[in-house]
Amino acid sequence: MRKYYDVIIVGSGIAGLSAAIFLKEKKFDVVVITKEKEITETNTNYAQGGIIAWKQGDSDKNLMKDLLKAGCNYNNKKAVELFARKGPNLVFDFFIDKIGIEFSKTCEGELNYTEEAAHSDRRVLHYEDHTGDKIQASLIEYAKKMNIPILNEHTAIDLITNDHHSLDVQEIYRKREVFGLYVLNNNTGEVNTFFSNKVILATGGIGNLYQHTTNPISATGDGMSMAYRAGAEIINAEFIQFHPTSFYHRDIKRFLISESLRGEGARLINPKGERFMKKYEPEKMELAPRDVVARSIYEEMGRTGSEYMLLDIANFYQGEIPLKKRFSKIYETCLEGGIDITKEPIPIVPAAHYFCGGIKSDLHGRTNISNLYAIGEVSCTGVHGANRLASASLLEGLLWAKQSADDIYDSFEKIGKSRLDRVPDWHKPDKTEDFDPLLLVQDWKAIQMTMWNYAGIIRSKKGLNRAKADLNYHWHRIFKFYKTARMNKAIIELRNAVVNASLIVEAASRNKNPIGCHFIKK
To answer: What is the tens place of the pLDDT at every residue in 401-412?
Structure first.
């Protein structure tokens, strides 16, 4: 099946859905695809803390300072300036005034701004601790009202490029362009050819490459792997932000304990009940940048021989909103695990949380390949530098959704249909075989353990060399099998995972300077 669109958007989180809405408003024929059964299965949906927004008395300059300081001045200063100047107001213009999101209010009826680590002002809006799923649900509802087609259970396999896929030899001599995507229908097994004049990758992060993560299982970095194989530039891949506090529990995995708890007074203690952050960061303590707090917890775990630390909000919360309501999601989830956060501390462990690197994209979301845009966590605009400022990611996704939509509107040109006609449909191998699901699980565990042990919170030259060797072995084996495997979502994700893990390890090996999220022992 061959389909034609103005713009294809891969990913249904804040960046993808916002871009679709902006483009639909400009009368473009757009489609959003997601590999998951549920449209809501995104990193956006699991975001708890909040989103940076305009606040009376705050300034672009102050926000820029905070972004640069958290990012260790490794940031793209032009991107930081754009973010600080245009981003905070967009929360009001788009989310509040257009989409109609009602963020949490104080008892007096005013917007309730919260504080998070490394911010110099309380500038973060939230909806209790359900900020992400509130935004996600609101965007989906608005998109449906606009009749934006969202195709679930459709997995992008590869980007179609003129110089690689066209049967016209002359395309080899032209600049590389993206013509669309080969897309697997997960239910039927059919691979369709989706043509478009522009493609926006908004596929999210890579957290599932690690043994411990706050990301959903779908976070396999598909967009980055596809873009890399098509020739896109990948930058800052060594910068993986580990969230200091994920719930440590035998049965409840991948659950984030928001940084907002520390913004509201929660303190870190070891199993003996001792506060320990003063030893590692005496000035900011619990409100130090995430990379500092994550490493401090990791080192305290090593020093004490414990598998976890504790976060105490019960004895230090002084907010106006009752604790059960302010952090209702965390309260209910922890209670399911036998922990009452109003009475006892929460067992926590650091976990892979946010990818500060990705597909290099400019101030308009454009990549080095014509017609290809990358926005949100899959992209690297340079806003975050070596370490992301808390609650900056949702706003980056929103702002670059608008930037890319505006750029597409201003520069839109159709690709001649005669050129698209020279692109063949997906070539299916003559012989295909099913794979043993146990082998797939084993390969995933091997990649996750390799990344956690050797390319995790603290790295070393020897460990990274070991990771390179292990991943090289898995790369060749997985790619060899991929060529004859019966196509399905699982094998596509595994191929993407080994590519992305290798990119991260290679970038970490090249960067000898321990900075931000990349902490390497010299």
So the answer is: 999 999 999 999
**CA-CA distances (angstroms) from residue 95 to 100, 103, 136, 264, 370?**
6, 10, 11, 25, 30
Cβ atoms of 191 and 224 within 8 Å: the answer is: no
Instruction: Please give the structure tokens belonging to residue 358.
Output: 């990705």
Query: Which among 224, 258, 253 is positioned nearest to 243, based on CA atoms?
Result: 258
Asked whether the beta carbons of 167 and 422 are under 8 A apart, the reply is yes
Pairwise CA distance, residues 215 & 45, whole Å: 10
Ramachandran angles phi, psi of 414, nearest 5° = -80, 145
49 pLDDT band (50/70/90 cuts)?
confident
pTM of the complete model beyond 0.85: yes
Cβ atoms of residues 258 and 264 within 8 Å: no
Q: Which amino acid is at 105?
A: K
Q: Which two tokens mark 224?
A: 């980055």
Cβ proximity of 164 and 42 under 8 Å: no
CA distance 483 to 257: 41
- Asked if the model's pLDDT at residue 394 lies above 90, the reply is yes
Which is the catalytic residue, given 267, 290, 459, 495? 290
For residue 332 the two structure tokens come to 């209910």
| pLDDT digits 0-9 by tens, 375-388 | 999 999 999 999 99
Distance from C-alpha of 223 to C-alpha of 203, rounded to nearest angstrom: 5
Q: Per-residue DSSP letters for 228-249?
A: HHHT--EE-TT-EEEEEEEE--
Domains and CATH numbers, the chain: 241-353 (3.90.700.10), 437-486+488-521 (1.20.58.100)
For residue range 173-207, list pLDDT tens digits in order: 999 999 999 999 999 999 999 999 999 999 999 99
**Given the structure tokens 């505006």, which residue do they identify?**
406
Residue owning tokens 């998951």: 36
pLDDT score recorded for residue 513: 95
The larger pLDDT score, comparing residue 103 to residue 117, is at 103
Neighbours of 486 (CB within 10 A): 13
Residue 290 falls in the annotated catalytic set: yes
**How many CB atoms lie under 10 A from the CB of residue 256?**
24
Q: Which runs of E-coded beta strand occur in 238-332? A: 240-247, 267-269, 309-312
Report the alpha-carbon distance of residue 438 to residue 443 in Å, rounded: 9
Report pLDDT digits (tens) over 127-183: 988 999 999 999 999 999 999 999 999 999 999 999 999 999 999 999 999 999 999
Distance CA 87, CA 399 (A): 6
Which tokens is 244 given? 């200091």
Please report the beta strands in 254-323, taking only residues with DSSP state E, as ranges in sequence order: 267-269, 309-312
Q: What is the largest CA-CA distance in the chain?
A: 71
Which pLDDT band, with edges at 50, 70 and 90, does 483 fall under?
A: confident
- Count other C-beta atoms under 10 Å from residue 72's C-beta: 18
